[in-house]
Amino acid sequence: MRVSDPLRSDVVSRANKRCEYCRYPEEHSPVSFQVDHIVPESIGGPTELKNLALACSHCNMHKSSRQEGIDPLTGMDVRLFNPRIDNWTAHFLLNRETGKIEGQTPIGRTTVEVLQINVEQPIRARRNLINFGVL
């Protein structure tokens, strides 16, 4: 279902114009961010504010309809980070020297892995924003 303009505006405002998974600011992206269904529409996730998150195209593409993955440390199935119920700083840490986002919990590690948050291009972009004082 298409997300209405007023609903999209609410999602963007609540997210402070940042990807809710990697915290990248939309204003520094070459493309507009997307509205992600946390619980995918394909399995009945509603198109309502409590099930929507602002996502950069990288995070949204890699998340797709996934809700869980394998924790690279324990090998266990773990649900992905849910911006509506989880606190970002409890699960992730931005390493300001490397530009990497480090998962601090099984949810954080799994989300970093599944969304491929630490591949070369996003790390390079984060390092530039850190150097310019944006992050």
Compact overview of the structure:
With 135 residues, this protein is α+β, with helices and mostly antiparallel strands. It has helices at residues 5-14, 57-63, 88-91, 106-114, 120-131, and strands at residues 34-37, 52-55, 68-70, 77-79, 92-94, 101-103.
Task: Tell me what the structure shows.
- The protein has 135 residues and is an alpha+beta fold.
- It has one domain.
- Helix content is 31%, strand content 15%.
- The chain is built from five helices and six strands.
- It has helices at 5-14, 57-63, 88-91, 106-114, 120-131; strands spanning 34-37, 52-55, 68-70, 77-79, 92-94, 101-103.
- It has a two-stranded antiparallel sheet with strand order 1-2. Strands 3-4 form a two-stranded antiparallel ribbon.
Report mean pLDDT, rounded to a whole number: 96
* End-to-end separation: 33 Å
From the spread of the alpha carbons, the general shape counts as globular
Strand order of the biggest β-sheet: 1-2
What structural class is derived from the secondary structure elements?
A: alpha+beta
How many β-strand stretches?
A: 6
Global Rg = 14 Å
